[in-house]
Amino acid sequence: MRAQEARWIAPLVVEEMLLRLLLGPCGPLIAQMGRTDSNTQRIERAIGWIRQHFDQPLNIEHLAELTHLGSSTFHARFKAVTGFSPLQFQKHLRLQEARRVMLTSGADVGGVSRQVGYASASQFTREYARMFGRAPRQDLAVARGAAPDLLLN
């Protein structure tokens, strides 16, 4: 194909790709994302707030107000968009951040658990083990190449 032909055909190819996306199985979700005040965009506001304040207690009423939805509607739509309840989403963010901090800085488990918003180190350890398959100290030992059994004492 010559450059002259490509200039005429390229916009048509892009248009065809967009139409195929919109007509495919994900089409309704993609179309909804493009709407100015769609449910997805409303939930994205809440996701942004949770990401910025993941270390703070979660207030569903505040998030519902932020998205201009009732509490139960907000909860249902949040789960439909993310696959998680708001609390599960926050917990996932907290644990991912805690793991990142521990692996990159070597900070202690208790300090990191408080830093990401946990009031109880034991609750943090339980939820960390549930998510990552190992207690935080064991996970750090494996990441650093030590035998996990060495840190059990």
From TrEMBL:
Residues passing through the membrane, by range: none
UniProt GO molecular function: DNA-binding transcription factor activity; sequence-specific DNA binding
InterPro entries the UniProt entry points to: Homeodomain-like_sf, HTH_AraC, HTH_AraC-typ_CS
SMART domains named among the record's database cross-references: HTH_ARAC
Residues in HTH araC/xylS-type domain copies: 44-142
SUPFAM superfamilies reported for this sequence: Homeodomain-like
Keywords, ordered alphabetically: DNA-binding, Transcription, Transcription regulation
Keyword 4Fe-4S attributed: no
The keyword Transcription belongs to this UniProt entry's keyword annotation: yes
Full protein name: HTH araC/xylS-type domain-containing protein
Organism: Deinococcus aquiradiocola
Lineage: Bacteria, Thermotogati, Deinococcota, Deinococci, Deinococcales
